[in-house]
Write a structure and sequence with these properties.
The strands form 3 sheets. This protein has a 6-stranded parallel β-sheet with strand order 2-3-4-5-6-7. It has one domain: Aldolase class I (TIM Barrel, Alpha-Beta Barrel). It is built from 14 helices and 11 strands. With about 375 residues, it is an alpha/beta fold. It binds 5'-deoxyadenosine (5AD) and FE2/S2 (inorganic) cluster. The site of FE2/S2 (inorganic) cluster has 7 residues, from helix 14.
């Protein structure tokens, strides 16, 4: 395709918010750096329309690295005997929230492996305590595949959001990344359950995971356009030395930020993080992510003693810094590229918040 044709695909995507599978493949496979520059301009314009210069912070609390699953890409997979396993107590988790609250966070993400110790009852108790102590904060869970009843119990205890990446929307590819105990069908069931309960749902995928093709990424985009999640987290695949994918190549920054750009055009109001993995493959990866249309950053609130133990991939950044250091580092980085940290729950934009001013349209949420 000629470059002008790729640009027109970007224009079609902006107006129609989706493409045919063949057009998705062409866009993802054949774009040039000039096309990417154009995409990022459009993505920034759209993001500005709904969110202005705001970047939302979510405080990430990695509360357990025990995992019963064995995903081939993941450093904390159950069969990695070299991981030093840890669990935070409810008190430690609440202490992380308190530190975060003092630093201005109003949104907490509790992420962990699928750890059987954290039964439905224990998670409910943790969520209830956070909800009681911090009624003005959003509580996000990211703890994997659970039965409908557990998702409902967490929601009733006060959780409002749930992150569960689909990883890849192609069955065959899913089978190359996971053991047979995990299925795309169940992943989709979980996402549907979460949405039906009323959670704000986040999904996402890795860019450049082993065996991934442009067709697979096209399928990811079709899946996301159809699911319409409120949040989408994507980051480059990065190998971990103690996994079956130790010798595979990382995903690239260029393709990851390109996918962030197309996500912004597909879901204009979505919350898209510039992920730690993106910051790991390039020292300004998160900045490039924000400049490609992302609007969330998730600094780490986990106690420094456990951070290195939550290694999903090699060379993860921010494992030596205190929460306050990350908080201030990230704010400086955000300001340097012309954006502003916003201290609130960071709910998704909705058209009711959009005000038609004199010539400008902006978001009025505080
Ligand atoms: N490289 C990049 N991302 C990874 N994740 C897990 N392992 C890796 C890796 N090696 C991502 C998965 C998961 C999220 C919590 O982290 O997409 O859903
Ligand atoms: Fe953690 Fe920069 S954000 S050190």
């Amino acid at each position: 395709m000629k470059p002008t044709d790729i640009k027109s695909l970007i224009d079609v995507l902006e107006t129609q918010r989706n493409l045919s599978k063949a057009d998705w493949v062409t866009l993802i496979r054949d774009h040039t750096p000039q096309d990417a520059t154009y995409l990022f301009e459009r993505a920034r314009a759209i993001r500005k329309l709904y969110y202005g210069d705001a970047v939302y912070l979510r405080g990430l609390i990695e509360f357990t690295n025990y995992c019963r699953n064995d995903c081939y890409y993941c450093g904390i997979r159950g069969s990695n005997r070299k991981v030093s396993r840890y669990r935070l107590s409810e008190e430690q988790i609440l202490q992380c929230c308190e530190t975060g609250y003092q630093l201005g966070f109003r949104s907490f993400v509790l992420q962990g492996g699928e750890d059987p110790f954290f039964t439905e009852e224990r998670i409910v108790s943790i969520v209830r305590s956070i909800r009681k102590n911090y009624p003005d904060c959003a509580i996000t869970l990211s703890i994997g595949e659970k039965p409908f009843e557990s998702y409902l119990a967490y929601y009733q205890a006060g959780a409002d959001r749930y992150l569960l990446r689909h990883e890849t929307a192609n069955e065959e590819h899913y089978g190359k990344l996971h053991p047979s105990s995990l299925t795309l069908k169940n992943r989709k069931r979980c996402l549907q359950d979460l949405a039906s309960i009323g959670y704000q749902v986040g999904t996402g995928f890795m860019v450049g995971s082993p065996y991934q093709t442009p067709e697979n990424l096209a399928e990811d985009m079709l899946f996301i356009a159809d699911l319409h999640p409120q949040m989408v987290g994507i980051g480059p695949f990065i190998p971990h030395c103690e996994t079956p994918f130790a010798n595979e190549n990382s995903g690239t920054m260029d393709l990851t930020v390109f996918m962030i750009g197309v996500l912004r055009l597909t879901l204009p109001m979505s919350l898209i993080p510039a992920t730690t993995a993106l910051g790991t493959i390039h020292s300004f990866g998160r900045e490039y992510g924000l400049l490609a249309g992302a609007n969330v950053v998730m600094p780490n609130l986990s106690p420094v003693e456990v951070r290195k133990k939550y290694a999903l991939y090699d060379n993860k950044i921010c494992t030596g810094e205190e929460a306050a250091e990350c908080r201030h580092c990230i704010e400086k980085r955000i300001n340097r590229i012309g954006y502003k940290v916003v201290v609130n729950r960071g709910d998704p934009a909705s058209s009711q918040f959009l005000v038609q001013g004199t010539g400008t349209t902006f978001c009025t949420k505080s």
